Amino acid sequence: MPDQNENQQVPQQQQPALPPQPQQTVSPQIEKPPDYVPQQQARDRRDRYQRPRHQGPRREGQQVHRDGGKEVSIVIPLYNEEQSLRELYDAIRNAMNRLGRYEIIFVDDGSTDGSMRTLHDLRSRDRRVKIIRFRRNYGKSAALSVGFAHAEGNIVVTMDADLQDDPNEIPNLVSEIKKGFDLVSGWKKKRRDPITKTIPSRFFNFVTAMISGIHIHDFNCGLKAYRKDVAKEVRVYGELHRYIPVLAHWLGYKIGEIPVQHRSRKYGKTKFGSGRFWKGFLDLLTAVFTTRYMQRPLHLFGFWGLAFILGGFLVDLYLVILKFSEGMALSNRPLFTGGVLLIIVGVQFVSIGLLGEMISKTRQSADKEYSIREIWK
Fold first, then answer.
1. What is the spatial distance between Cα 324 and Cα 328, in angstroms, rounded to a whole number?
2. How is the beta sheet containing 224-227 ordered, strand by strand?
3. Closest to 83 in 3D by CA, of 222, 266, 263, 271
4. What is d(CA 100, CA 335) in angstroms, rounded to the nearest whole number?
5. 240: which DSSP letter?
6. Would you call 31 exposed, middle or buried from its count of C-beta atoms within 10 A (0-12, 13-18, 19+)?
7. What is the distance between the alpha carbons of residues 157 and 221, in angstroms, rounded to a whole number?
8. How far is residue 194's CA from residue 196's CA, in Å, rounded to a whole number?
9. What is the pTM of this model?
10. Confidence of residue 59 (pLDDT cuts 50, 70, 90)
11. How far is CA 374 from the centre of its chain?
């Protein structure tokens, strides 16, 4: 009997009455492994980068092809250069074998021949060829501006499409950029052009160097290399493509120059007439004013305005002194009228400067837009 009682007490000790446990609400995040959130974020990031990004509305015929980061972008403006494009492409491809990843951006400035057919044929063979086509002819500056905007390379090289620029010079230009220059301009030391173009060009380069303070020999050479920052920052419009080194220099960039090979024109004829030199000097004035005085126009107009006012005041003061000291009449002195006119012109100059200051403080800068017919990237 005692053993039986002991056996009955054991279960009472093994199963004591326990207070009810409070129910815990476990959040779904705690139930999952601790590294669930980082893993989910990693998957979200991976899916986001793998999904094709929305490219926005595309024009009819526009294609988008992305090859990733590139080292060099070659921008080539062209106008009716059908005969030279295939040979130019082959020469560029041979020259670029020594460099890394690159792209060739052809900007068709409203060609009316078969240039677009040739470009599309080149693109069908090589996706590194990109095409931008204008609806009409806007000029070389417009083509370069749009080409710069679409360039993806760390170094941007420009050249003409007429085969006068040698693509074998591209590695030399890129090498100079890597040495520390921001812009390297080619110098056609032995120019293969008629004397009607070489003599005016030398005079033009001499005047530009004297006014701008940049001592390079050939401002208008189409073969140039730029750091990406220069190509994106310099605003090229009108006919200012001749003065890109000037614009870049006044923005604070380091300019260099190397001699390059220049070839005789093989196909077609030049697209620039003798009128480009007169336009060139007017564009030089535009470049000087927009870079030095765009933000402070009163410094230019005010200086000459004060000079005219001071000159007119001194002339009239001299005549007034003669009037009271010697009794000379002023009505028959043309010099007195000239002094008054100088004062009036001076006041007008100062007024123009003040108006320019008000406009520069209130204007909203807007990028020049051009009508692009199609883009193949």
1. 8
2. 255-260, 183-188, 224-227, 153-158, 70-78, 102-108, 129-134, 372-376
3. 266
4. 72
5. G
6. exposed
7. 12
8. 5
9. 0.65
10. very low
11. 20
**Residue among 32, 73, 265 at smallest CA distance from 158:** 73
User: How many distinct helices (H) and strands (E) make up the chain?
Assistant: 13, 8
- Tens of pLDDT, residue by residue over 2-36, are 444 444 444 444 444 544 544 444 444 434 434 43
What are the residues whose beta carbons fall under 8 Å from the beta carbon of 44, sequence distance 6 or more? none
Tokens encoding 276: 């480009």
User: What DSSP letter does each residue of 300-337 carry, written as one string?
Assistant: HHHHHHHHHHHHHHHHHHHHHHHHHHH---STT-HHHH
> Tokens 């400035």 — which residue?
109
Q: Does domain 70-292 have CATH number 3.40.50.1240?
A: no
Using CA atoms, how far apart are residues 176 and 256, in angstroms rounded to an integer? 8
Coil, strand or helix: which one is 6? helix
Q: What is the DSSP string of 136-166?
A: S---HHHHHHHHHHH--EEEEEE--SSS-B-
Identify the CA nearest to 368 among candidates 169, 105, 143, 178: 143
The per-residue DSSP string of 10-31 comes to HHHHHS---PPPPPP---HHHH
The per-residue pLDDT for 70 is 81
Beta pairing, strands 70-78 & 153-158: parallel
Please give the angle made by the CA atoms of 344, 350 and 355, to the nearest 5 degrees: 125
For 11, half-sphere exposure in the C-beta direction (CA atoms, 13 angstrom radius) is 4
C-alpha–C-alpha distance, residues 291 and 249, integer Å: 10
Look up residue 187 and give its two tokens.
Answer: 């110098």
* Biggest alpha carbon–alpha carbon distance for the chain: 160
The Cα 110–Cα 371 span in angstroms is 10
Cβ-Cβ contacts under 8 Å for 348 (sequence gap 6 or more)? 305
Half-sphere exposure of 186 (CA within 13 A, CB side): 27
**Cα separation of 26 and 203, whole Å?**
85
CA distances from residue 73 to 130, 176, 228 in whole angstroms, order as listed: 10, 16, 9
- The pLDDT assigned to 77 comes to 95
Please report how the helices 297-326 and 334-362 are oriented relative to each other, as an axis angle in degrees rounded to 10. 160
Domain ranges of the chain: 70-292, 297-361
